[in-house]
Design brief:
By secondary structure, the protein is mostly beta strands. It contains no helices and eleven strands. The radius of gyration is 13 Å and the shape is globular.
Length: 129
């Protein structure tokens, strides 16, 4: 069983920043694409970003492009999501997920939840003044 552990969520004011981490203790992420998703109350879970393992290529939802940055440190077994210029509409529980079938973020379906085999428990981000 692969366990992903998110951390870094917090309450911040609009315009603030946070850095989320996704760690996978005892498991190597070197070969798998990792996605970040978020889910606000009453809404469906949506893909935010994805990072490939093979070439480090990335993908972002239009709503976060230019504000969020995904990165990975395979040596530490950790994937990060830097959140800048946060808006109230970014408020959600943020989840990371591992795609054990692909090393590349497929442009056609990286935002599809059933592409991912394992999920973390989520970390809450609240943006409010």
């Amino acid at each position: 069983q692969v366990q992903l552990v998110e951390s870094g969520g917090d309450s911040v004011q609009p315009g603030g920043s946070l850095k989320l981490s996704c760690a996978v203790p005892g498991f190597t992420l070197d070969y798998y694409a990792i996605g970040w998703f978020r889910q606000a109350p009453g809404k469906e879970r949506e893909g935010v970003s994805c990072i490939s393992s093979s070439d480090g290529s990335t993908a972002y939802a239009d709503s976060v492009k230019g504000r969020f940055t995904i990165s990975r440190d395979n040596a530490k077994g950790t994937v990060y999501l830097q959140l800048n210029s946060l808006k109230p509409e970014d408020t959600a529980a943020y989840y990371c997920a591992a795609n054990l079938m692909r090393s590349i973020c497929n442009p056609l379906n990286w935002r599809t939840t059933h592409e991912y085999s394992y999920w973390g428990q989520g970390t809450q981000v609240t943006v409010s003044s």
